[in-house]
Queue: 4 jobs
Job 1
Amino acid sequence: MELEEKNQNNVREKIALITGITGQDGSYLAEFLLNKGYRVHGIIRRSSSFNTGRIEHLYSNRYAHQGGKMKLHYGDLTDSSSLVKIICEVKPTEIYNLAAQSHVKVSFELSEYTAEVDAVGPLRLLDAIRTSGLTSTIRFYQASTSELYGKVAEIPQTETTPFCPQSPYACAKLYAYWIVNNYRDAYNMFACNGILFNHESPRRGENFVTRKITRAVAKITLGLLTSFELGNLDSKRDWGHAKDYVEAMWLMMQQEKPNNYVIATNETHSVREFVEAAFSFVNRSIKWQGSGLNEVGIEENTEIVRIRINSKYFRPTEVDYLLGDSSKAKKELKWEPKITFKSLVEDMMRADLELMSKNPEA
Ligand code: NDP
Ligand code: GDR
């Protein structure tokens, strides 16, 4: 009997429901799961402008879409009834909750909304799973973040490092982290937290610092821009590639038991170093002059000021130093990042140079 049940589970079709499918991670995860033979359902928000650009190539693909392998549903993390309806209809085997108001600086201006989506949103999803009566069959992934560490208590940061959030975004994600742990214990749910450090790609949103830099350096290289502005150059981040990180999300969901895992490259770089690496890709170098808000980045040889500092990009409270230790993921998930910092910058630079040369207005 036990064996029969096990066999039935093995042959059961894998159905994923992804919230935030239109975002950077959602688009890579959808691709990854379609390649593994999953049926993929995604929740999208109604928007007055086009918001499916990152998944258009999947959605218009005859096999992925018309073959019924991929389906999009209107819903919102602020609307419980839409979540219950979609879960009851789709009956997913795995839910990846990637939807969020994900911009840290913006969360200081939209603090209540950020809490609605990033804290209460995951709670709504967990309760929707319970309401649907599928608690024992659905596995749940929560997009937790290295921002939880905030004012870091130890270096490097692991699964046991204490949290000290430094923004409304991080406070909201802290609630989500704990409610996932609580529902796992209270209701025996398969629910896990991926504590992911910063990960980037050519699909990164344009107002995150890495993409802002690669877009600007590509434009400067093509003569479409002379200079750009940044905020804090000294903060340090453990930057990986989103493609590597979606694999780690999936691996967590394939384990026998749910758990929390740090996903990181175990290497840290400052914003300043990211700027230098981007310019170096196009064989240019930047030297720094002045200090504080008066610091500028000057291109060697031309002596033209390429970077100015603007206080509007500083946060009321900053996270200065992030460096992850993903040994637990390496040991238990057999996961390791494949893409180095240098290759990440190159991938983003190459993509933005191609984009800007085809469409200078982009
Ligand atoms: P993005 O900002 O690129 O994507 C966010 C997604 O959430 C978009 O699809 C967006 O939809 C959707 N969304 C926003 N609000 C709602 C809502 N109210 N209801 C439904 N959907 C909503 O983020 P990333 O892909 O970079 O990150 C994915 C997740 O991982 C986020 O939760 C983020 O906080 C977390 N994270 C990210 C890290 C990173 O370095 N990228 C590191 C650690 C955690 P729309 O397209 O319509 O705006
Ligand atoms: P972060 O990413 O806040 O780490 O959150 P972001 O790229 O916004 O900032 C990284 C660091 O760069 C500094 N910085 C600037 N940031 C932006 N956006 N724009 C600038 O002009 C600029 N100049 C300097 C910031 O002060 C900061 O120190 C990301 C998001 O994806 C979160 O959702 C996720 O949880 C964390 O990564 C891990």
Job 2
Amino acid sequence: MSRPAVLVARAVFPEVVERLATHFEVEANPDDVIWSRAELIAHLQGKAGVLTTGSERIDADLLAACPGLRIVANMAVGYNNFDVAAMTAAGVLGTNAPDVLTETTADFGMALLLATARRVCESEHFLRAGLWKNWRYDLFLGAEVHGSTLGIIGMGRIGQAVARRAALGFGMRVLYHNRSRLAGEIEAACGARYVEKDELLRTADHVMLVLPYSAESHHTIGAEELARMKPTATLINLARGGIVDDAALARALRERRIAAAGLDVFEGEPRVHPDLLTVPNVVLTPHIASATRGTRLAMANLAADNLIDFFTTGRPRTPVNP
Ligand code: DGY
């Protein structure tokens, strides 16, 4: 019997491609060229499965042009690149890569919060530019992290992992807002209290965004929400670009209507809003919250497991449209 043909749409660890090649006819994208949509569709011809990284939009038009496709395995927990309804209608399964990145991503959330509140990058640039003349009592005064109030918007697995770190490790008061309130024992385990979004924005010293992107969460933080935050507050976006109105944020940062921001994700990334590049009080990182070798390998292997399980047992491990 011929083996199913599978496309690996972006470069991933060679050992994962080799693993896939023991089960499938594999076409990989080793040079990591970002294919245009037409090129992606051309490469998908004759393929029954594809491993994606989250940047490939899977919608009704693409599915209509790729009638042999049966499964799309995202190497990401977020799957806002999937039109899930269109995939279900076309009988195509989608899978994501949850759990394996939770703790690593939460670690990075704390790294970004600390770097932003304590002005790590701004002061490092100052030092490298040769501007440091002396110790001064008021050099790069930052915001307190320990004992302050963290407001988390989006309290899924990653939000909860951040809450545990903040409450148990840094003695922070943790507030959260989520579509639905968590069970009492989960709130207690992560030391977090549910509040309405407005209260969270008004009272938090640091606001961290960890919610999935969807039409409903588009611009969850825009000019109005930024105006409700404390002028001393920081904003951290660990989730997806598009959840924050980057132009409004750049204005708020420039006018010091909030103190600082830390962003790992951007609207239309890898493009970054040019105004964000010119304000000093923002820490910008290139979507690396899950980027440790162990975690990225686990994400790629879970995507591969989903393809292998689907074609051998019919049941992938982490479907999003079962
Ligand atoms: C995810 O898994 O959704 C991350 O953003 C990709 O690193």
Job 3
Amino acid sequence: EFGADEGDEDDLAFRPPIVTVMGHVDHGKTKLLDALRSANVVDKEAGGITQHIGAYQVATEVDGDERRITFIDTPGHEAFTAMRARGAQATDIAILVVAADDGVMPQTIEALNHAKAAGVPIVVAVNKIDKPEADPTKVRGQLTEYGLVPEEYGGDTMFVDVSAKSELNLDKLLEAVVLTADASLDLRANPDQDAQGLVIEAHLDRGRGPVATILVQRGTLRVGDSIVAGAGHGRVRAMLDEHGNNIEEADPGRPAMVLGLNAAPGAGQTFIVVDDDRMARQIAEKREARERAAMQAKRRVRRTLEDFMASMEKGETQELNLILKGDVSGSVEALEDSLAQIDVGEEVSLRVIDRGVGAITETNVDLAAASDAIIIGFNVRPQGKAGQMADKEGVEIRYYSVIYQAIEEIEAALKGMLKPEYEEAVLGKAEIREIFRSSKAGNIAGCMVIDGTVRRNAKARVLRDGNVVADNLDLASLKREKDDASEVREGFECGLVLKNFQDIKIGDVVESFEMREIPRG
Ligand code: GDP
């Protein structure tokens, strides 16, 4: 199956490093990727029509040897995290682009955290040094504060001053990538087995049918091979390189555009070569079923503090990853400082992989999903689709407004003594069809219970166009016709009054819910 090289040490050969370019918006990621591609003078075949196939390979000379490097041609860390979230590790090295006139910015730090969480070595490209206001020394100082210490300051991160615009020092940047790879990675693969690798991107082409850009990770892919890619399969009809040239084979580390699949696979999915078409079809069908099941399971799985404890007891986890978000920087710092003082013994480590001020964003959830982290929200809540996404990805967000409470719970979790957790159970929903104004009772909502049961003693929230406009309310009264009721079931009308919330509108939905203790163990 997918994943390991066949044979033994002797069968392995060096393969090029695979590089992703990350960094803050407008710092020059796209321009750098374009410049590196066109500065690829060693490649004699270049000169065709360059195609954006999602990845490309360049060659450079280091100490007299020709060395190849593969670039994933999608700037930004979204692609990087999306792949990791699928369990696909495509990237060996990250180039962190920082504009020398702008310095370190929020997305610089985000990118840095993503790469660190993935254990991917970083090479820093200090870009735009052609600009008069460029200050590469300042960038070095700023990144040192985040643990990326330049070699020239005694650290182990290579910084290269470049200009993507003037194509300055691009060879030095390529050299730094090669040297970093040599120093910290063992990049070898068996080129003589059936090919395996990743789908970088895929689309449906009008003339050519499904077209997938793949990256060979081991083995050699040849025209005529039967492959399964994601839930698609087929025989490789033709392969194109990034210059639009037809190629017959692709060895480890090489990207290629593959024609001949029956369906476009998703980015980050794997491909394998199999014996024949019939087998390819069978595997593709199985994969599709498995993927569907996994998607459903994933919705149910939650990585909670309890999961962490359970796997710690079984000896599986020794590391709790946290992402801290708070309303002001003071509270985030205080939280992090207090966390650092928790004595969890030698075996367990608590890692804060990202922190920041402001609402919990989709990027935070992305990083949490990719690194099995729990998000701590201190006086902040998810923004936009981040909450929905956390539910879908099974990322736990814990909210606190008191620091010692957060510390206590995390400490308790680490020591295996967490207090029972509560889970919200939605009991039912009622739609407001009429509003009666009563000087004594306030606004009475004339409702139809459209789902489940509405209960007098349960909590309630008001939804308007899918948004929560009031939460955690109590009912002042619940009536069926003229009588007080303890609950009203689906299909029946009722009248209810919300405590401390009068701003109801026709069409609002009142959701009745309660908090249930989740039994432990
Ligand atoms: P991205 O958002 O990180 O992909 O940034 P882009 O590659 O789109 O670049 C943002 C802007 O910076 C564009 O206007 C580029 O032309 C400009 N830019 C990129 N690299 C350089 C550089 O080395 N020097 C100068 N002066 N401008 C650059």
Job 4
Amino acid sequence: MAASDSFETRLFINGEFRPSRDNKLFRVNNPTTGEIIAQDHLTSPVHEASEGDVDDAVAAAKAAFPTWRDLSPAERGGYLRRFADLLLEAHETLAQIEAVSSGKPVSQFFESFVAADFFRYFSEAGWNAQGTTSLHTRDHLNLSLRAPYGVVACITPWNLPILLFAYKVAPALAAGNTVVHKSSEKSPLAATFLATLVAKAGFPSGVLNMISGYGSPAGSSLASHLQVRCLSFTGSPQTGQKIQAAAAASNMKHVHLELGGKSPSLVFHDADIQAAAEQTATSLTFLSGQSCIANSRIYIQDSVADEFIALFKSAFSSARAGNPLDAAVSRGPQIDEQQHDRIKSYIEIGQRDGTLTLGGGSGPGLFIEPTVIEDITETSPLMQEEVFGPVVAINRFHTEAEAINYANQSEFGLYASVFTRDLDRAVRVSKLLEAGTVAVNCTSPTMAMDMPFGGYKTSGVGREGYLHSLDNFLETKSILMRI
Ligand code: NAD
């Protein structure tokens, strides 16, 4: 990072940077070294939004709404395209910010590319906000219109702060809404750097307001705010429940929730066992297991279990750990001490309810070894709760029906994988798995951005992904015209 790349760490409200009303500041640690980040332009502590700041941001978004709504999709698209270009120009800086503040290896950093794709796509897709017409009622021409909600709140988690910002904010703006985006208290640096890019892109004042803050007061104030008409959230199910309750208790705002996962991989005897082992291992190594779609449960058919487990362990333990700034490193630390300790407690549970056969240790600092627990009871919290770390549970099955039954014995339903060379089996099993996405002969982080993405059961409400996302940010109105 060049010293000249200085950027703001204040809140971005109504087109200008300003300090937090309560003068509260975050300190950001480097999870690899444990040091408070204090190099070049990263010396400024980040400002934390208070309830008053949320009110100001919402008021700015509300004031900006009529003008933004009345721009044509092409005019709005111009701003989105400019922002996409700025994201690409900032790729190196964003990669380094994420490496030093979140422990994400630069070798795996891709978020700015996907985020730029999203902004580019939605710079055109605003034209798709169209309704329907009907002549089916006698003496009437009936129309339905799609219209923006007004002020939209977007709340994102720390693990993919740039990608998930784009996933929500690009379609919300393209649909004609104005936005207040709140980033996670655990990843404020990437979000404040994005605010610098928002300022450079020259969006009209108040159209896109960027605040960093804790769940309470900043997040909860947005969830219960009477002027916010739609809220799109990605994070844990626990927070999703609070947001849904706050939304219902305040003004029934439209809520869209992308929540956690406990994604199973089913590996059948007729699969390419080597490929299945390598891919499932990568899924767990990616972001050090801090991914909502990591295949944290693997079910392996008993006849090939020993072969698969040996190959899996070899692939899982081969990821090179080290400083995420080093391009040869593919495994970084966990984001913070709280997350590290939480994962350790699940490893202890795994040792109690199953057999530890790889890893289990931690250090230096916040690194956790790739860990395998085998033959674990299905009711164990390790099988039922999201660990969000490099820990996998591997159980064996005998029949296809048994495997499907195990996979579906979870409150989560975000993502699942099936490895088999039998096409009939692939289709049959995919249809029965309770998951929003099923990957056949591949696994996470593979995603298709143009497909609906979201969760069954406790993994969420609604779907995102290109045009599905646009739909989340549009109201529908029917107009009945007597002719
Ligand atoms: P989290 O729920 O703790 O926090 C997410 C966001 O919600 C943060 O910005 C936080 O400040 C805010 N928040 C917390 N309490 C709030 C409240 N009461 N009201 C409003 N906002 C509040 O989640 P996290 O630890 O940041 O992220 C990890 C979780 O996110 C995991 O469960 C993971 O599976 C999930 N996730 C899901 C997806 C998906 O697409 N389904 C993608 C990435 C992460």
